[in-house]
Every structure is written in structure tokens, then in C-alpha cells.
Amino acid sequence: MNVLLTADVASSRPTAAHPEPCVLTVVLPFHNEQAGVAALFARLMPVLEGLGLSFEVLCVEDGSRDATFEKLRDVALADPRIRVLRFARNFGKEVALTAGLNHARGEAVVLMDSDLQHPPELIADFVRLWREGWQMVYAQRRRRDTDSAARKMASGAFYWLFRLVSEVTIPEGAGDFRLLDRKVVDALNAMPERSRFMKGLMSWVGFRQTGIDYDVEQRFAGRSTFNLWKLFLFAMDGLVSFSNVPLRMWSWFGFGISAISGLYGLFVLLWALLHGRDLPGYTSLFTAVVFLGGLQLVTLGIIGEYLGRVHTEVKRRPLYLLSDTVGLDGDTPVDRSGA
Ligand code: UDP
Ligand code: MG
Questions:
Q1: pLDDT digits over 170-188, tens only?
Q2: Per DSSP, which regions of 37-182 are E strands?
């Protein structure tokens, strides 16, 4: 791999002992991706070397149960431009991206998946637009061919709902594959919240943003960890983190129902005065009791959802724990096994 190095890039190599600032950091989250590591670097490194600027690749190993870390460690030990953070357990992709942003040294940071669904060749376009003055360049997927019909529908519904209730707009089809300027990275790093819905946070910060279209590719190896249930939880997290509407809409409902029942009460009173008390009320009474009971449970559940978040925030636990690092200051020895 090093044969491909140009003299320019080689001379600007950062080393662990003397980390130099570099222009570009590529952050990659890895979770059980051992089968794809070699293919990823074989494709990514020539692209980065072709950019003609100094760069580092920051791998965040997110509690894999396979040999992903060992593979990453081997490539990082052979190439000082590659650094690895290893989480103490699986903290999830959003937190992995956050850790990457915390440790990135570049003037610009690219976030991309490590399963080759995000074509590395697009980074050249990101960098071109960044040099033109854009502070955030996100990739927008043109088609969703790689997704199942259910996933397509679910994601359509999510974007619709998110637009409806939240004050930030997430561009449709834009994922985490994007370039962020240092200013944006610093802004994101300054956000203290534990709930890291990155897409939302990245829209919330604003700055000069632009998108470019791309076609998402098939996963190189392994399988996606996001099933529909996980995506549902993720979507809930996003909605609750970025909107108070679920919390507030019940007061509107309450007003509506009070108004209607007030009018109904008036009607019943008048009817009784005019015609005597012969109004059969069992069905309407039953319906009202059950409906309102259900509504109150839903409301309580939603309050619980927000309260749970407050609870998580006030505990002030660290967002993630690192168990090993390669290529960072204060590295812990990672190869005690002698393997
Ligand atoms: N990933 C991660 N932690 C997790 C799950 C996934 O770091 O808990 C990484 C994974 O290795 C991949 C990226 O996040 O690089 C996207 O995950 P995946 O391909 O499973 O999701 P999809 O592409 O289907 O949205
Ligand atoms: Mg994927």
C-alpha cells in the first residue's frame, strides 16, 4: 500500500509521537465488519492519496464481537496515517461518530460507513465543494434500491413526521455520509447532550450546507445491524430529541375534548329540560371513558419518554469508554496476547 505514496503525502505523515495537524480526517465506525476491512482500505487509501493533501483515517471500533479490532490494529500499525479507537463495548453508531469527531485533528472531517455502501470516490467531490467555501457537504442518496419495501416506507413516514413536528429540516435521503468543516465539528463537539441523533444535530447547527447526489452501494460483506425495530427506536429517539410536539399535542387534544364535551353537556341539559330525562347514555359513556383512559396512558407514556431522557442527561455519564487505542497519544499496549 505504501508504494502508492507520493513524496508529498509521505512527508506530511503524522506520527503518534508528534501528531501534526492534518487537512482531512476520515471517521469510520466499525461494528462486526471483519470481512470488509481489507477491501475498504484497498479502495479508500488510493482515493485519499489521490487528493494531494495530508490526511488521517480514524477508525472507531464499536464493540465488535469478531476480529474487527485485530484487523484494524494490523493496518494501523503498518500505516501511521491510520488510527484506531476501540470502545469498551458497543455504544452504537451515533456515539461512534461522536467519538470520531472528538478525536479528529483535520481541518475537515468526513464521516462514512465502513461497509463500502458509501463510495469513497465521492470524497474528492466533498473536498472540492469544501474548498469552494461550503462548510458542510452531505451526500444524498438518489435511489433506495438496496432497501426493502418496508424500510423505504418506514423511512418515508419518518421524514414526513419529522418535518411536521420538528423545527429542523433533515434533507431527504441525506445520511451520515458527509464532510464537515472544523467550525462545524467544533460546534458539534460543544453540544453536551447524550442523545446523539447525528442527522438532527448536523441540521440543527446550520452553517453553509450543500448536498450532492450519489447511488448507495451494496454492503461489501456482513449484514446490516439495523432491523426495522432498531430503526423504529432510532426514529423515536430522533423525534423526541428534536421536538416537543409529542409532549405538547396532548394539551391541544385536551382543549379539543373539553370543548366538545362542554357543548355535549349543554346539549344533554337542554334535552333533559325540554323532553324529560330519557336520553340513553350507556354506549356514549363507555366510549368516552375508554377513549379518555387510553389517551391518558399514551400521554403518560410520552411524558415518561421525555423524563427518561432527562434522567439519562442528569446522570452525566461519559458518552463512551475507550478500552484501547492505536496511533494516539497515551496508547495503551494492545498486543499483550503475543498473538
Ligand atoms: N455501526 C456501528 N455501531 C453499531 C452498528 C453499526 O459502528 O452499533 C456501523 C457499521 O459498522 C457501519 C455503519 O455503522 O459502518 C452502518 O451500519 P449498517 O451498515 O449496519 O447500517 P445501514 O447501512 O443498514 O444503515
Ligand atoms: Mg450499511
A1: 887 788 899 999 999 999 9
A2: 55-61, 82-87, 108-111, 136-141, 174-181
Residue 245's CB is within 10 A of a number of other CB atoms, namely: 15
Strands 322-326 and 209-214: unpaired
CA nearest 22: which of 13, 34, 32? 13
Query: Do 109 and 99 contact (CB within 8 A), yes or no?
Result: no
Cell of residue 332, nine digits: 495503551
State the Cα angle at 262 between 260 and 265, rounded to 5°.
110
**Residue 160, helix vs strand vs coil:** helix
Range 152-169 burial, b when 16+ CB lie within 10 A, else e: eeebeebeebbeebbebe
Determine the Cα–Cα distance for residues 26 and 56; give it in Å rounded to an integer: 6
118 lines ligand 1 (CB under 6 A): no
Residue 207 near residue 130, CB atoms below 8 Å: no
Cβ-contact 145, 218 below 8 angstroms:
no
User: Tell me: the pLDDT tens digits for 111-164?
Assistant: 999 988 899 999 999 999 999 999 999 998 877 666 778 777 877 888 888 888
Please classify residue 171 by burial: count the beta carbons closer than 10 Å to its beta carbon, then call 0-12 exposed, 13-18 middle and 19+ buried. middle
Kindly tell me the number of DSSP H helices and DSSP E strands found in the chain. 11, 8
Residue owning the nearest CA to atom 21 of ligand 1 = 224
Dump pLDDT digits (tens) for 60-100: 999 999 999 999 999 998 888 999 999 999 998 989 999 99
CA 125 to chain centre: 22
Strands 82-87 and 322-326, by their bridges, are: antiparallel
Give me the phi and psi of 166, to 5 degrees please. Answer: -110, 155
In which residue are the cell numbers 496515517 written? 81
Is ligand 1 within 6 A of the CB of residue 140?
no
Return the ligand 1 atom nearest residue 175 CA.
25
Q: Going by CA atoms, what residue is nearest to atom 25 of ligand 1?
A: 226
